[in-house]
Amino acid sequence: MAGIVHFEIPADDQGRATTFYQSAFDWTINAMPDMDYNVVTTTPTDEKTGMPKTPGAINGGMFAREGDLKTPIITVDVEDIDAALAQIESLGGSVVKPKDAIPGMGYYAYFRDTEGNVLGLWQNAAPEGGAQTGAGTAANDIGA
Fold it and tell me: Which residue range is the domain that position 72 belongs to?
């Protein structure tokens, strides 16, 4: 079963949104160098793995609102993004952003479901010398 592993919040003004979420919920929000993206920490993480300490908890991100990415997005962990996108299209969904890499971490893509909602997909990168990991590694949290 594919689990929810990440959320993303689009913002017209990331500085204003950062101030809001930090003040409202005491979240930690840090900019990712060389990207127009912020890592949002909502729950304590393990210092070694970066994964949330609480089972089922997730962290997220914030990015500039644009194009088809206008509303909050939940991200689903999958074993194989290419196969998941093909299945989504066969069921009447569509690809919004094809598979792209975050070096050293994994791959992501965005899709639109049959109801018009945009969601994300995540596939962990293969560890050095090993097989890729994905669904079933439920505590995985992108960028946390």
Answer: 4-124
